[in-house]
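Researcher: Here's a chain I'd like modeled. Treat it as a single chain, no partners, no ligands.
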Amino acid sequence: MIDRMQRIIALTASLLLLAAAPAGSTRAAGAAEQTASALKDLRISAAELMPARSASIKPASAHAVPRLAGEYTAPANENRETERRGISGWTVHVDNDLFAFTNEDRDYTAGVSVTLGGADDNVLSGALGWLDSRIPLAPSRGDDEESTRFSEIGDARTKHSLEIGLVLFTPNDLEASGPLRDDRPYANLAYVASSRLSHEPGSSVARQSSLTLGMLGLPFAEGLHRAVHDAVGSPEPMGYEHQISDGGEPTFRYAVSKYRLLHESSYGGRPFSLRFGTTASIGYLTEANAELEFRWGNMHVPWWVSLPSASDYAGHPPMKFADEAGSSGMRLLASGGLTARVRAYNSFLQGQFRDSDVTYPSSRLNRLLLEAWIGLTTVFPNDLRVSYTVRRQTEELEDGRGARSFTWASIGVAKQF
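Model: Modeled as a single isolated chain. Structure tokens:
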């Protein structure tokens, strides 16, 4: 397990260097070689893992294969599917505003995460289960209209994931060393999050919950940010001493989502689905939101699986990458959507209990936020999955230089065992 995590971290570092290096440069070529080597090492790691897994797992059928969290089987087989224990796959996800080709380096400027599918044997997952057992959710519109708690959904298939990551926020002027009181403050969050998603076979409703524990304002983020900018020749950020919760402060977030299938059909011979989702969360982001999402492509992804394009900044890990068993060749999935958020509290702008040099009162924040995204996921013949998503959000601040909408993009690379 430790060796596999080290290989995943090595892949993450090489992807960051590749993303930051100028196209066509010697540095980019070197980073590409490192990425290829890291992917090869991780593929070997998966092969080493398989004998141990196959010895302890009895397949549901002669053609059954290990699946990543959230992966789909045909409805006729859902009742017979038994969830496999242990790590079933990994995803490396990198966010950056430069990926959106906007020539901007500000606001939500970067994020990186490593997600392990099937990781449910940990303290955080246990704490999430305890919380879920005490949270009443609206019932699915079936024969039973009584209130149902998350952990008591009868024959639901439940999938798990564990995510470790870092997100960074910056003002527009990176070279200013003093506090910028009319722009957003520096902020960073290092976190670990556990998530699970449940879906009853044949139901038009699915539910997801997540619990995130993290630290705001850790000093190492400044060194990492400066190292990346130094490597690519960009201005180094000089104002981290004025970041939110400078020196470190613990934080948390608990979120619950409910998704409902609105329509499922095919277009151009490829599956198409439209779903509606609602989410409520409390913690470093306290808000309620509603989203409308479409998917179309030849990956045959079930409507209830949560994809990277629909994830938040951090802390609500998506249940990633489902596909049909036995498929081959390159497959594509296009997705997009709209989200309306009513945000009551944002620690990245308002701070927490620890004093911060630059914070904003709630009266200077926009409560209603709109967000749109569009993305494309590609599955190559070797089953390596790559996704690219562009997102845009309306202004979080009502006034000052920080009152601006912003755009960022995400690149995800994933492999299942």
